[in-house]
Amino acid sequence: MKHALGFLVVGVIMTALIPSQALAQDSHGETDRWSSSGPAGHAPIGVMGDHTHHAGEWMLNYMFTRETRSVLRDGSDRIAPEDAYAIWPMVPLDMTMDMHMGHVMYAPSDRVTLMGMFMWMDHQMDARMANSLMPGHGHGNGGHGMHGPDAPSHTHAHGVSGWADSEVSALVTVLDRDRRRVHLNLGVGIPTGSIDAEDDKMAGSGHARMPYPMQLGSGSWEARPGATFLQQTDRLSLGAQALGSLPLNDNDAGYRWGNAATFNGWTQLRGSNWIAPGVRLQSRIWGDLSGTDPNLDPMVSPENDPDRQGGSRLSGYLSLNFQVPSGILRGHRVAVEWGGALAESLNGPQMGEDWTFNLGWEYAF
Fold this sequence. Notes:
Mean pLDDT: 88
Number of helices: 2
CATH architecture: Beta Barrel
Low-confidence stretches: 7-30, 137-145
Oligomer: single chain
CATH topology: Lipocalin
Number of domains: 1
Distance between the termini: 32 Å
Largest sheet: 11 strands, antiparallel, barrel
Strand order of the largest sheet: 1-3-4-6-7-10-11-13-14-16-17
Structural class: mainly beta
Number of strands: 17
Order of helices and strands: HEEHEEEEEEEEEEEEEEE
């Protein structure tokens, strides 16, 4: 915790020392400055921490996300569930993740915007599971002798819901002129999500720890550094962002997630006071786990194996931003986004991404 908070404080202090000329008012006036007005003034809703605010401004944000996964992959190759079942007595088939996320943003100055983010998650998964892992069908220790490619099995449904990890961050503007803006994203991940969720329908005892991807949190404090670049022309609003996630400690279960990096690039059409269509590309890479949870047997499922959790993914999205320009709803924004994986390479077998849908609302005042 001390390291994470120190990272945030030191970053804000260092960037505050950057010469103020970088933020000087352009001599041509406001029309030659980057502007957050209009529906293209914010990035597609799937991009976090994309914009800052003027001193004294607040912004409230809510976003709903549904992501679906299926199709086992090892590297970029597809793996049939029956082939994986010949090795593991429990193999994931599909997964749905719903997320309800809230943001609160406040700008104590024109240069610094503070942000808090919290999430409620619901994970639901279907797996092919050997009958021997069910109470009353065997001792449930996950041994390979308890199943085979022709062993009796069933589709096993399990799920978990609750608070996920949270984040506090500072967005610090370092350049704002000539219709370009750059700010640093200095975030700290707070381990408020559970890492000990159990399935009460497995194993001889009737309880078993759910696999790593089903847990709601990481259990570790994380440094989340990044930078965002914005540019506008008369017709387009462009952006690029790089964000990192660096776990700082092993969690209480004895492991930490691998480092991750996410890169976003987007463009949106300007010109309308009501609507801005756009496209976004996202590249993400993440590492395997370091350490292991002793309650998870990697011989039972590939999702219990800490060395089968990393990978990389390129995804594409279509977006629409809506804004009410006048009247009692002035300042309210609604945004939608839909897309999915274009290419994946997973340390599998792992389930690949099918599609993701984002729906969000924002209000600044």
